[in-house]
Amino acid sequence: MDCNNLGSDPCSILEDQPILHIPVNIHFVMNMDGKGNFSETGDGDGGTYNGYQRAEDIVNLANEQLEENYPVWAINPTPEICDFRIRLALQGVYFHRTNYALISSAPVQFNHNNFWSYINQNLVNASSEVSCFFFNGEIGNSPSGQANGAQATILFDWFNYTGHEKPENLGPNNWYRNSVARTLLHEIFHNNGLWKHPFQTDDCDDTPTLPGCWSYVENGPPPCNDWANISNNLMDYNQWIDEWSLSPCQICRLHNYTTIYLIQDDNEGECAPLNSFFALPSRVCLSYQLNVWMDGSASYNETEHFIEIYQVPSVGSNDVISGTYQSNWFDGKAGRVELGDYLNYNFGCGKVYRVKLAVSNDCYDWDEMIRYVTIDCACDAGGGPNTPVEVEELFASPNPSSSNININYKLNEAQNLTLTIHDVCGGQLVGTLKEQEWTDADPQVYSWNVGALPDGLYFVRAVTNTQVRTAQFSVQH
Ligand SMILES: [Zn+2]
């Protein structure tokens, strides 16, 4: 299309175009300690609202904003108001832990060269998808977003979330969340052929530059003290999130732009393309976690989902080990679930499982993703990589034992402690020594009789507020 010569009825040409979806990956960049941004399991601030949910919420809000275009302000003659035929399609959500000091010159003031090189090292499918990096900078101290021709950054999402959205308990349609979605669109559209700013042209005759007037200045000098001169173009720095606009030429340019692969939607927006995406640890230590969590929160546009699990001989194999197959269809969106409960499935020790998530909606049969998880039960695990050491010492003596065994433990500070004994294979509970019992920080010993237990390997499991630690022992009569 010749975007500056769409004729007297540009909307009829543009609205004849198929709806195109720009494939987007969202990346959250945390501090080394796993705090300071949304993570795989939480909001980086003690809450359970995680990065997969955040990414899907922001992309959905951006798409809601793309459902209606508004009149363009401050341009004469006023361009036609054509429907957007562009949407975002969430492809994946990724998490990064880094030393922020290496990519910023101050806690929230980013050194642009450093952060673009950091981004370039962490791209996913860079030739066909846009990667959007969410850092944890503050409004006012850092740019709110940036684009570099292929990738985009958003700097203030987590700051706004922890500073306003969460403490003020704002609902999903709050100003902050919408402004993140709008900024995301602005940056992604920079990468897809719109490089307009108030002071910069994108070669569209219907979007003139407007030096200095992206924002209303009350009691300021003309012309920005007059609402009639203020732009609401998405690519100008306007702050009016409810009624931003793009001109016919700009919408046309988005359609013409082909550097980033666009997914065509043949369903007239009735329901958008599907994308199955889920997180699953590649190895689960059952003695440490006792659960196998799968998070499909970032799977996109499904109205129902299907999960399938079976045991395979090795990672990468599709061969079913007989008697281990289980599957089920579920209504609604895939979320974060404990697979054992969700599918009534018993995982066994030292075995490899193939897990598939398929998602479906009224327009598309399905899209699927497969991951593998290895179950380990005999691990003598400490905490995870980001866990402070609360259980400083844990061991059983004598080992092996036939009658009385001493469980020795020491906490870093007084707190509630749960101590349980499990059978190594299967993690089955065989004894509870303490349940949420207030325990001093001095070295302690708990004596317990193992005379009734069959010979074999066992572990003691110590659970504090943030840590699970286990230690093995054997029973020999
Ligand atoms: Zn910009």
Can you tell me the CATH superfamily of the largest domain? Collagenase (Catalytic Domain)
Tally of DSSP β-strands: 20
CATH architecture of the largest domain: 3-Layer(aba) Sandwich
Query: Which band does the percent of strand residues land in?
Result: 25-35%
Average pLDDT rating: 85
Task: Quickly count the domains.
Answer: 3
In helices, the fraction of residues equals 10-25%
What is the terminal-to-terminal distance?
A: 84 Å
Largest sheet, if any?
Answer: 6 strands, mixed
Query: Which spans of ≥5 residues are poorly predicted at pLDDT below 50?
Result: 381-387
List keywords for this structure.
20 strands; 477 residues; 9 helices; Immunoglobulin-like; binds zinc ion
Could you write a compact summary of the structure shown?
With 477 residues, the protein is α+β, with helices and mostly antiparallel strands.
Would you give an account of this structure?
The chain has 477 residues and is an alpha+beta fold. It has three domains: 10-265, Collagenase (Catalytic Domain); 283-376, Sandwich (Immunoglobulin-like), CATH 2.60.40.10; 391-475, Sandwich (Immunoglobulin-like). The protein is 16% helix and 29% strand. The chain is built from nine helices and 20 strands. The protein has helices spanning 10-14, 51-65, 100-103, 112-120, 157-165, 175-190, 248-256, 286-289, 339-342; strands spanning 19-31, 86-98, 130-134, 145-147, 152-154, 263-265, 283-285, 293-295, 304-312, 326-331, 336-338, 352-360, 367-376, 391-397, 404-411, 415-423, 429-439, 444-449, 456-463, 468-475. The strands form five sheets. Strands 1, 2, 3, 4, 5 and 6 form a six-stranded mixed beta sheet that branches. Strands 7-13-12-9-10 form a five-stranded mixed beta sheet. Bound molecules: zinc ion. Residues 186, 190, 197 line the site of zinc ion.
